[in-house]
Amino acid sequence: MNIGIIGTGNIASYLLEQINKLQRAEGQVIAIFGRNQEMGQQLSERFEADFYTDLQGFLDLPLDIVVEAATVEAAGIYVKHVVEHQKDLVVSSIGVFKDIAFLEELKRLAEAKGTHIYLPSGAIGGLDVLQSAKAADALDHVQITTRKSPASLGVEAEEEKVIFEGSAFEAVEKFPKNINVALVLAIAGIGAEKTKVRIIVDPDIEQNTHTIEAEGVFGRMELQVQNNPMPSNPKTSLLAALSILSVLQNRGSALRIGN
Ligand SMILES: NC(=O)C1=CN([C@@H]2O[C@H](COP(=O)(O)OP(=O)(O)OC[C@H]3O[C@@H](n4cnc5c(N)ncnc54)[C@H](OP(=O)(O)O)[C@@H]3O)[C@@H](O)[C@H]2O)C=CC1
Ligand SMILES: O=C([O-])CC(=O)C(=O)O
């Protein structure tokens, strides 16, 4: 499997280390696309993958799958081109799908091109439960409470404080670098307008903690993940990068676990 990565940051570096150095997936990252020349060159030399600043050159390569690991804004510019070039796509910046019509359009394009789009569970879990409940309209209410440190949220705070309460749609508009998890939850469940989000800044916490509550005819779920942040970007939980590695490990497997 030939893998390409968009982005030269934290998730990109982690995947390069795990795949190209530690062989934790059946394949190789052969190319990186980005705009940061210095980081791009460094990663290219360290992990033996070519660095591109020109998207066309990158997409002309025989890539089987492209991992977007950039930003919501950059994903909006690039992901459609990836699918148009008949590559499978893994999206990290799931906030790009706050307008669900864009995801539907991309899905139709992938069907026409015979490719797949993967939305990893990222820094949370419980998407299997939501999808099972949704299968027969048995899901009514979904809420996520995210608790992060001031460093992780990029705000100053001396004491614990709720800094946002609203829909997943509004949350992604206000915190595009911090709450992609709310969007994947919304897509798996009841949509970005109905999914409720609370963001709490907590100076006494070091982990990125997400508590998910869901209710419906199926019953009730409450799940909490206490994620270690990544050293090079405390906004991002290690679990988010691991979930992408897991998607790459499972691609093409005859066995599928979960729905
Ligand atoms: N789904 C989930 O659960 C989670 C998703 N995420 C999301 O995953 C994404 C990647 O995270 P992470 O690696 O930690 O982020 P980083 O900030 O460490 O890296 C982002 C990278 O994107 C690059 N970039 C930004 N804009 C562009 C552009 N227009 N063209 C090309 N490259 C660009 C940056 O380059 P430069 O150096 O030039 O700025 C940088 O290399 C983020 O959107 C993050 O919010 C994170 C955690 C959980
Ligand atoms: O990594 C996390 O804990 C969550 C996050 O940043 C995001 O969803 O964008």
UniProtKB/TrEMBL annotation:
Asked whether the UniProt record includes NAD among its keywords, one would answer yes
The organism's superkingdom is given as Bacteria
Which residues are catalytic? H210
Query: Which residue range or ranges hold the Aspartate dehydrogenase domain?
Result: 158-244
Q: Which InterPro entries match?
A: Asp/hSer_DH_NAD-bd, Asp_DH, Asp_DH_arc, Asp_DH_prok, L-Asp_DH, NAD(P)-bd_dom_sf
The record places domain Aspartate/homoserine dehydrogenase NAD-binding at 7-120
Offer one Pfam family short name for this entry: Asp_DH_C
The Gene Ontology biological process annotation of the record reads: NAD+ biosynthetic process
The EC number(s) this enzyme carries: 1.4.1.21
SUPFAM superfamilies with a match to the protein in the record: Glyceraldehyde-3-phosphate dehydrogenase-like, C-terminal domain, NAD(P)-binding Rossmann-fold domains
Question: Which pathway or pathways does this protein act in?
Answer: Cofactor biosynthesis; NAD(+) biosynthesis; iminoaspartate from L-aspartate (dehydrogenase route): step 1/1
State a single Gene Ontology molecular function. NADP binding
Q: What class of enzyme is it?
A: oxidoreductase
- Sorted alphabetically, which keywords does the UniProt record give? NAD, NADP, Oxidoreductase, Pyridine nucleotide biosynthesis
- Give the binding site residues for NAD(+): A123, N180
Reactions catalysed, semicolon-separated, are: L-aspartate + NADP(+) + H2O = oxaloacetate + NH4(+) + NADPH + H(+); L-aspartate + NAD(+) + H2O = oxaloacetate + NH4(+) + NADH + H(+)
Q: Does the keyword Hydrolase apply?
A: no
Any other noteworthy remark? The iminoaspartate product is unstable in aqueous solution and can decompose to oxaloacetate and ammonia.
Q: Which family does it belong to?
A: Belongs to the L-aspartate dehydrogenase family.
Role summary: Specifically catalyzes the NAD or NADP-dependent dehydrogenation of L-aspartate to iminoaspartate.
Protein's UniProt name = L-aspartate dehydrogenase
Q: Which source organism does the UniProt entry give?
A: Planococcus massiliensis
